[in-house]
Amino acid sequence: MAETKELIQSGNAILGIEFGSTRIKAVLIDENHTPIAGGAHDWENRLENGVWTYSLDDILTGLSSCYADLKKDVQTKYGIKLTKIKALGISAMMHGYLAFDKNDKLLVPFRTWRNTITGQASEELSKLFGYPIPERWSISHFYQSILNNESHVKDVAFFTTLAGFIHMLLTGEKVLGIGDASGMFPVEFATKTYNAKMCAQFNDLIKSKGVSQKLEDLLPKVLVAGQNAGTLTAEGAKLLDKDGDLEPGTPLAPPEGDAGTGMVATNSVKPRTGNVSAGTSVFAMVVLEKDLSKAYNGKIDLVTTPSGELTAMAHANNCTGEYDKWIKLFGEAITVCGFTVDKGTLYQNLLGAALKGDKDCGGCIPYNYISGESMTGINEGRPLFVRKQNAEFNLANFMRGQLFTSLGALRTGMDILFNEENVKIDRLTGHGGFFKTQEAGLTAMASAMHTPISLMETAGEGGPWGMAVLAAYLVKADGASLSDYLESKVFASAKTKTFEASKEDIEGFNKFFENYTKGLAVERAAIEAI
User: Fold this and answer.
1) Contact by Cβ (8 Å): 28, 38
2) Helix, strand, or coil here: 424?
3) CA 88 to CA 391: how far, in whole Å?
4) CA 258 to chain centre
5) For strand 427-431 and strand 384-387, is the pairing parallel, antiparallel, or unpaired?
6) How is 185-234 classified by DSSP, letter by letter?
7) Which residues, other chains included, contact 75 with Cβ-Cβ below 8 Å and sequence gap of 6+?
8) What distances in angstroms separate CA 95 from CA 31, 344, 387, 397, 526, one per listed residue?
């Protein structure tokens, strides 16, 4: 305790902050990459005028509130003020669209990754480049704005992701880590910057539509892990710490996306390693040995690790959001009956019940589509629960179905990698809220992925811890590659738990998935009718 207190007072602690879908989290680490303090702020996106968004006030308030909670934790644990930080990193949900004019004024509300309103742009760009450009990507949002003849397009001088925007506020630098940048526009893996040929193709395309800007002038500069991305300005320090105690001058790592920090947090940055991040959304990242053979209509993203290694990403917009709502409803039912139960116990018991369900969920088929899913061709969200009259409708099957459907769209994408591309994985590591109830989460994920799933003891820290590690790499790498740094300095003594699903569990998920795929017609009908 005394050593940690001295470390913080001397300004040698390192901070990572990540903006997740429902929570902003801060993790402070020591010289051994061990978490020593944390903070959080809950927030929610909202659907406004058909667009999933967070307001500018949401972003700024969330940033300072999360940091204030961290300061409070430091004060409570160590009896000191947090005034100096050795290194800092910002990460956030990837993709989306934050567009600014020449005075850095936000032109339209933030359009998040969750939106499925860029289908035409995604299709046209994927065809033009011969390369997958998913609907979530920033370039899809920008080009769709052009196709829609939106008035703000003529004033766009810069656009970026959420992590890039917050980093700009703190440092004044318009830069982005390569992992996050590769979800804005395709990058060249040899040059570690945007694909020059595709930039030229895009410029020609928009010029023919009367748009005069050059794409390369609008995108943030690409940096790789370990490169200095600027320093905390006096204005940035005041945005972060409303009390004014934080000193400026802290070096910042390149801002990254949550996919990149997930790879770092699970030591999955080398070829044949992968990770699954499962929370409000779910995505699997697999570091490839070679490029994919074709584009698959944008169902598989090609992005990079924070150090620039080619990575396949299978992404689904919806994961735990719907079962969170059901568990909240069950909690209300318990309260109405005059009982109380804490949230942790409620989740543990209800999700744990899934382990007692029929392997195939007994014919219960939920759909967790709060928003649309590009992976399965569903353009809007309609959460549903479907069953035949003779289904085994009980709590265990209901909850098992909620866990399985959380992974239905992801499995659609992973089947492409496993079956079509014959991708090999030596290690697939999980992290995120889906695994907090470990046995239930591991059973469902291993059954859906039909491959062993590992959990590290640090997995609960997730993305913000991974971002803190990237910030540590900035100031402590000493010339080591990111993969070597993680192997020798961060995970050398990491404890790992690996779970392998039984043959019956895998066969059960396969039967559920067959019914799930057939039942997508019901989901489409619901969108048309309601």
Assistant:
1) yes
2) coil
3) 52
4) 4
5) unpaired
6) S-EETTTTEE-HHHHHHHHHHHHTTT----HHHHSPEEE-TTS---B--H
7) 81, 82
8) 32, 32, 36, 35, 28
- Residue 274 pairs in a beta bridge with 286, 428
Buried b (16+ CB within 10 A) or exposed e, 54-72: beeebbeebbbbbbbbbbe
Lookup result for tokens 């450009």: 133
Q: Dig out the tokens for 269 from the structure.
A: 């940055």
Place of tokens 């795929």: 517
- 244 close to 271: Cβ distance less than 8 angstroms: no
Statement: residue 67 has pLDDT above 60: yes
**What is the tens place of the pLDDT at every residue in 19-38?**
999 999 999 999 999 999 99
Query: Which residue, 219, 220, 202, is CA-closest to 211?
Result: 202
What confidence tens digit (pLDDT) does each residue in 352-410 have? 999 999 999 999 999 999 999 989 999 899 999 999 999 999 999 999 999 999 999 99
Q: What is the mean pLDDT of residues 492-498?
A: 84
Give the pLDDT mean for 248-277.
93
- Considering Cα of 92, then 98, then 104, then 109, what sign does the dihedral take? negative
| Three-state secondary-structure class, residue 90 | strand
Question: Quick one: tokens of 261?
Answer: 């920090």
Helices (H), 278-342: 321-336
Share of the chain above pLDDT 70, in %: 99
Contact 316, 283 (CB under 8 A): yes
With CA atoms as reference, report the closest residue to 289 among 279, 276, 274, 267: 274
- Between CA 128 and CA 124 the distance in angstroms is 6
Cβ-count burial 387-417 (b if 16+ within 10 Å, e if not): beeebeeeebbbbbbbbbbbbbbbbbbbebb
pTM for the structure as a whole: 0.81
In this structure, the number of other CB atoms found within 10 A of the CB of residue 274 comes to 28
Mean per-residue pLDDT of the chain = 94
pLDDT tens-digit readout, 223-238? 999 999 999 999 999 9
Instruction: Please give the distance of CA 156 from its chain centroid, rounded to a whole number.
Output: 26
pLDDT digits over 73-122, tens only? 999 999 999 999 999 999 999 999 999 999 999 999 999 998 989 999 99
Q: Name the band, by pLDDT with cuts 50, 70 and 90, for residue 460.
A: low
